[in-house]
Amino acid sequence: MPKPAAPSPGAPASFAADAAGAMRAPPPQEIVGWRWAPAWVLAYVALLFAPGFAETVLSLGALTMLVKLTLGRMRTGPRLLSDAAWALTSALFAAYWLPELVSAIDAVDPARALREAAVDLRYLPFLWLVAAAVASRRGRNITFGGLAAILALWIADALLQGLSGGIESPLFRAIDAAKQAISGHGMCTASELAVVDRLGGVLGPCNLKLGQVIASFSPFLLYAAGRRFGLAGWLTATALTGIVVVLAGSRASWITFALVLLLSGWRLLGWKKLLALFACGLLALVVLDRSSSQVHERLVRTAHIVSADVAGLDDALSGRARIWRAAGCMIAAHPLNGVGARGFREAFPGCDPMPGVTTSWGDGPALHAHQLLLEVLSETGAFGLLLWLAGAALAWRAWAFADAQARERARPAMVALAVTVFPLNTHLAFYSTFWGGLTLLLAALYAGSLLAQPRSEG
Questions:
Q1: Range of the domain at 214
Q2: Where is the O-antigen ligase-related domain (predicted)?
C-alpha cells in the first residue's frame, strides 16, 4: 500500500500538527464557575448564629441561581459546572430528598412530611450554586479560604469565652446587644441560659452546636494552615481547634475531630508522629478534666458506659439508648418507608420503651434518632437507606476515578463530608434545617471541587 505523502518542504511547518489535531475531539469548554457564588456560600455559613437569616440567604441564593440559569436559557450551565459536577451534585441531592418524599406516603404526619419535602426542593439550586463557587481555582481559593477564616474567628472567640468563664462569647454578646436594640429582646431566653453546661461560642448558649460545627468544618482550617505555615501552622491550628471542641462539650464532636486528625494528619506526619500527637491529645484532655468542671462531668458520665446495667449505659449516652430502642420499634413498624421525615417526635410516644419515666433530656419526646443510620431507617425506611447508600457509592466512585490533582483540590471538602456522615457516631438530625443544610453544603463543595475541569486551573 502506498504510504501517505510527507508534507512538501514548502508547506507550513505546522501542517502536520494541524492535520493530526483535526482528527482529535475539540477541547472541552473551560469551566469558569460564577464569581459571586463564593459570597453566597460564605454569607450562609457566617450567619449560622442566626438560623433564620442563614435560611434566608440560602433561599435567595437558590432563587438567584434559578434566575441566572433561566436568563441564560441553560446555555451558561456547562461553563458554571462540568457535566460530571452537575450530575454528581444532583444525584447526591436526590439521594437525600427522594427518601423524604416517599416517606410522606403513609407518614405519621403526612402533611408535615410533604411540607418538608416541598421546602427542601430549594436545596437543589443552592447546591448548584455551591458547586459553582468552587468550580474554578479563584472560586476555591475564596471559598475554602473564607471558610478557614470564619472558623479561625469563631475559635478565637470561643477561646476568649473559655478564658473569661462567661456564658456568652464576645461575638455573641455583640450579636445579642444588636438583637436587643432592634427587637427589644435577646437571642436566648432566661430558661435557656439557666441550663447552659458547655461552651456556646458564636452560636450562643441557646444553640449548643458549636462543637459539631467546628469539628465538621475543621479540615478547611487545618489544610489552609498547613499550606500557609507548614507543619507548625497545622499543629497550632490543631491544638487550638481541639481545645474548643473539647470545651464545647459534645462527645460526638470529639470523635469527629479525632477522625479529622486521622485523615489529614497521617499524610503530613506519618503514623508514628500521629500516634504521638494523639498521646499529647489525651494528656491535654487530662489537664482539661482537672481544670474544667464541665469536661470532668462529661468524662465521668462517659465512664458509666462500662456499667453492666441498662440504666448506666443510658446515662452514659445521655438517654440515647432509650431513643435508639424507640427507633428500632419504628423501624419494625414501618420497615419500607419509615414514619416520615421529621416524624420521629410524633412516633416516639408510641414506641417509648419507658413510658412515664422522666427523660434525661428534659420534657417532651425525643426529636430525632441521634444516629445517622437509625434516623434514615426510622424516618425513611429501607428505601431511604438504599438511596443514601447509593449516594455514598456515587461519591466514592467519583473519588476513586478522579486523578491526583482533582483529589488534592477536593481533599478538605472530602474529609469534612466523610467525618460528618461517619456512621459509627452520634449525630444531629440530618433532616433538620440546620444540620441537613450544612451536610448538603459539604456534599456540594465536594462534588464541585472534585469534578471541576482541569482547564479551569489555567
A1: 37-74+91-457
A2: 237-389
Dihedral of the alpha carbons of 96, 56, 447, 214, in degrees to the nearest 10: -90
In a domain, 403, yes or no: yes
The rounded distance, in Å, linking the Cα atoms of 234 and 429 is: 31
Residue 174 has pLDDT above 70, yes or no: yes
Mean pLDDT computed over every residue of the chain: 86
DSSP string, 19-70: HHHHTSPPPPPPP---TTHHHHHHHHHHTTTSHHHHHHHHHHHHHHHHHHHH
Reduce the DSSP state of residue 108 to 3 states and report it. Answer: coil
Q: CA 443: distance to chain centroid?
A: 7
Radius of gyration of the chain (CA): 25
Q: Is 5 a member of any domain?
A: no
**Is 79 among the domain residues?**
no
> Does residue 162 contact residue 101 with C-beta atoms inside 8 Å?
no
pLDDT value, residue 81: 84
- Give the SS3 label for residue 102: helix
Is 14 contained in some domain? no
Cell numbers 512538501: residue = 8
Cα–Cα distance for residue pair 334/324, rounded to 1 Å = 15
Overall average pLDDT of the 306-316 stretch: 60
Of 409, 29, 446, 88, the C-alpha closest to 224 is 409
pTM score of the predicted model: 0.89
pLDDT digits (tens, 9 = 90+) for 323-381: 999 999 999 999 999 999 999 999 999 998 888 777 777 677 889 999 999 999 999 99
- Cα–Cα distances (Å) from 434 to 11, 338, 368, 414, in that order, read 66, 22, 13, 20
Residue 193 has pLDDT above 70, yes or no: yes
Residue 349 contacts by C-beta under 8 Å, 6 or more apart in sequence? 355, 365
Query: What domain count does the chain have?
Result: 1
Distances (CA, A) of 38 to 143, 146, 195, 295: 5, 9, 37, 37
Q: Alpha-carbon distance 38 to 131, whole Å?
A: 10
Helix (H, G, I), strand (E, B) or coil at 181: helix
